[in-house]
Design goal:
By secondary structure, the protein is of the alpha/beta class. It is built from 13 helices and eight strands. Helix content is about 50%, strand content about 15%. Strands 1-2-3-4-5-6-7-8 form an eight-stranded parallel sheet, sandwiched between helices. The structure holds adenine and zinc ion.
């Protein structure tokens, strides 16, 4: 079986960040928007560093202006994911971009995204679930409104709440209220931390927000006590190695700590984050992991079962995903 055909579970994928650049260029042309400054001469996204990446991301997202645009985006993204062997995916959705945090508009966007997900599931067998994410650099007040949108729509499909954005802005504790609202609504909790903010940021996020999963978390490697705590509490890391290497969090794949974290007993999973921004795809990540760390089918089985167990979906869906994995990796 080729790597692309191996069934995969992806827990950390930003829907807008997965938009193919050609798709965004097409939307911009339809709307007569000039966003040529966000593309390189080859047509890919162009940015200098992480801060600039966030700006380019938001400029690309500005072309997505209606539930119908998100419907088309979801279909385009899931087609790519299915071609990479993804059988179950959780995607980050931001009411900030979908209806400006207004609950009734957000419901329309969500409905359009869910309808596209149903079409993709019938077409390719891929299952999608949503995680509402607030955006750290938009501040705690907006995060509260975002959490209200999440709580209003929590259920079998909208299963989690998280936080992305610029980790250098504000402290996790500033966002307790938003996370409490989400937790009380029954949503699973994940937080971006330890991508840029060091091991201390992972510890702070764990203490203040009590997530069962952390987005990235890889800089925990700087402090053995934080690694030990992740392992003790079995907090699952959504690791995106290609994203980290492309953005310069680590200088090379060889230097990436994913294997050291695994060796220390931290549950790790593998995702792509914003694949076209980092010139990657999930099957390519698996190829690099095999090349760099000698990972074999048993390692991929392991990370995918970890991901399925950490997924925020209902138990019947989880059981079906685990059955698919067990059959393929037997
Ligand atoms: N939003 C989209 N991708 C992100 C990343 N890698 N870190 C923080 N926020 C993001
Ligand atoms: Zn992310």
């Amino acid at each position: 079986m080729s790597v692309a055909d191996l069934p995969k579970v992806e827990l950390h994928l930003h829907l807008e960040g997965a938009a193919p650049p050609g798709f965004i260029r097409g939307l911009a042309a339809e709307k007569d928007m000039d966003i040529s400054h966000i593309f390189d001469p080859d047509g890919g996204y162009a940015y200098r560093d992480f801060r600039h990446f966030l700006e380019v991301y938001e400029a690309a997202t500005a072309t997505l202006q209606s539930p119908e645009d998100y419907h088309r985006l979801t279909l385009a993204v899931l087609e790519q994911s299915a071609a990479n062997g993804v059988v179950y995916c959780e995607t980050f959705l931001s009411p900030d971009f979908c209806g400006n945090r207004e609950v009734s508009a957000w419901k329309d966007y969500l409905q359009a995204i869910r309808e596209a997900a149903e079409i993709a599931e019938a077409r390719d067998g891929i299952v999608l679930r949503g995680i509402v994410t607030c955006i750290r650099h938009f501040g705690p007040e907006k995060a509260k409104q975002t959490a209200r949108c999440a709580a209003e729509t929590a259920g079998d499909w909208l299963v989690g709440f998280g936080m992305a954005g610029d980790e250098s802005r504000g402290k996790p504790g500033d966002f307790c209220y938003a996370f409490d609202v989400a937790r009380e609504a029954g949503l699973g909790i994940t937080v971006h931390a330890g991508e840029w903010g060091g091991a201390a940021s992972v510890r702070d996020a764990m203490v203040a927000l009590r997530p069962s999963r952390i987005g990235h978390g890889v800089q925990a490697i700087e402090e053995p006590a934080v690694v030990a705590r992740l392992a003790d509490e079995q907090v699952v890391l959504e690791v995106c190695p290609g994203s980290n290497v492309f953005l310069g969090v680590f200088p090379s794949w060889q230097d990436h700590p994913i294997q050291r974290l695994r060796d220390a007993g931290v549950p790790v999973t593998v995702s792509t984050d914003d694949p076209p921004f980092f010139h990657t795809a999930l099957a390519a990540e698996y190829d690099r992991l095999a090349e760099t760390f000698g990972w074999e089918a048993k390692d991929f089985r392991d990370i995918n079962l970890t991901a399925a167990r950490a997924a925020f979906c209902d138990e019947a869906t989880r059981a079906r995903v685990i059955e698919t994995l067990e059959a393929a990796y037997a």
